[in-house]
Amino acid sequence: MEFINVNSAIDTRIALIQLNRPNELNALNLQLMSELRDALKELDKDDNVHVIIITGNEKAFAAGADIKQMAGKTTIDMWKMDQFSTWEQIRKTKKPLIAAVSGFALGGGCELAMTCDLVVASETAKFGQPEINIGVMPGAGGTQRLTKAIGKVRAMEMVLTGKFISAQEALDYGLINKVVPVELYLEAAVSLAKKISSMSPIAVQLAKEAVNRSFETHLDQGLILERKNFYLAFASEDQKEGMQAFIEKRKAVFKGK
C-alpha cells in the first residue's frame, strides 16, 4: 500500500492505520481511500483485532479530498467514478473505529473523522467543511453527520461559511470525545482503544450497530434493533462469562465467542 501504513501490533487487539501522504497533508485521493477500505475489510475479519485507530500525523489528519482529481470532472465523470461506494464500505466496518486527530481535519478529513465512532484530538486540531469556498458542498456525510452531532445552526454556519473550529470548540459542541496535548493524542487514542478492547468484542460490535442506528432511523425502529442485539448477546459465551464474573466479583475473561 502506497498511501497508508497498517500496524497490527501497536498493542494487543488494537490495529493502527496511518494515512501517509504527508506532502499533500494526507489529502484523500481515490487510491488512499481504496487502500483504507481494503485494510479495514481485512482487519474486520481478523479475530485478533478488536479496535482500529485511524490517524495521520501531527500536522494533518487529512486536509480534505484531492481537488486535482476532481477539478476538471463533469457530473457524469463523478457519477462513474462512484467514489462514495468506498465511503459506504468504510461506514460498514463492524469493529469500533477511533480517529486520532492532530492538525487539519477538513472537508473529507472531517467527514472521515465523523465516520469513526470516537474521536480523540490534539490541542492543534482544526475541524471544518470548507467545500463552499471552492464552489461545492460536502458529499461524504458532512451535512448529515455534522448536523446530527452539533445541531443545525452550528452545522449551517460551518457548511455555509467554511468556518474552521478548534479542538476545544469541537469538544464543547459534542463532535469529539477529548482534547489532549499534541504529544499525547495518539497515546490517548490507544488508551481508549485498550479500554474498549478489554470488553467482549461481540457485545461491542452489537452495541456499535445499535448506537449508529439511532443516527439513521426513527426511535421505534432503533429500539427494535437495540432489543434484538440485546437478546443476541445472550447467545454468546462472553455474556455467560461476564455475568458469572460479576456474580463472583472477579474480572471477566472475554474470548469473543
Account of the 3D structure:
The chain is α/β, with parallel strands linked by helices. It has helices spanning 30-45, 75-81, 84-91, 108-115, 142-150, 152-161, 167-173, 185-197, 201-216, 219-233, 237-247; strands spanning 4-11, 14-19, 51-55, 60-62, 97-101, 104-106, 118-122, 126-128, 164-166, 178-180. Helix 1 (30-45) runs parallel beside helix 3 (84-91) and helix 9 (201-216) runs antiparallel to helix 10 (219-233).
Which SSEs are present, and which pair or pack?
Blueprint: E1 4-11, E2 14-19, H1 30-45, E3 51-55, E4 60-62, H2 75-81, H3 84-91, E5 97-101, E6 104-106, H4 108-115, E7 118-122, E8 126-128, H5 142-150, H6 152-161, E9 164-166, H7 167-173, E10 178-180, H8 185-197, H9 201-216, H10 219-233, H11 237-247
Helix pairs in contact: 1-3, 5-6, 9-10
Percentage of residues in helical conformation: 40-55%
According to DSSP, the number of beta strands is 10
Mean pLDDT value: 91
Give the ordered list of helices and strands. EEHEEHHEEHEEHHEHEHHHH
Gyration radius (Cα, Å) is 19 Å
Describe the main β-sheet briefly.
6 strands, mixed
Low-confidence stretches: none
Structural class: alpha/beta
CATH C-level of the largest domain? Alpha Beta
β-strand percent reads 15-25%
CATH architecture of the largest domain: Alpha-Beta Complex
Question: What is the CATH third-level topology name of the largest domain?
Answer: 2-enoyl-CoA Hydratase, Chain A, domain 1
**CA distance, first residue to last residue:** 32 Å
Instruction: Determine the CATH superfamily of the largest domain.
Output: 2-enoyl-CoA Hydratase, Chain A, domain 1
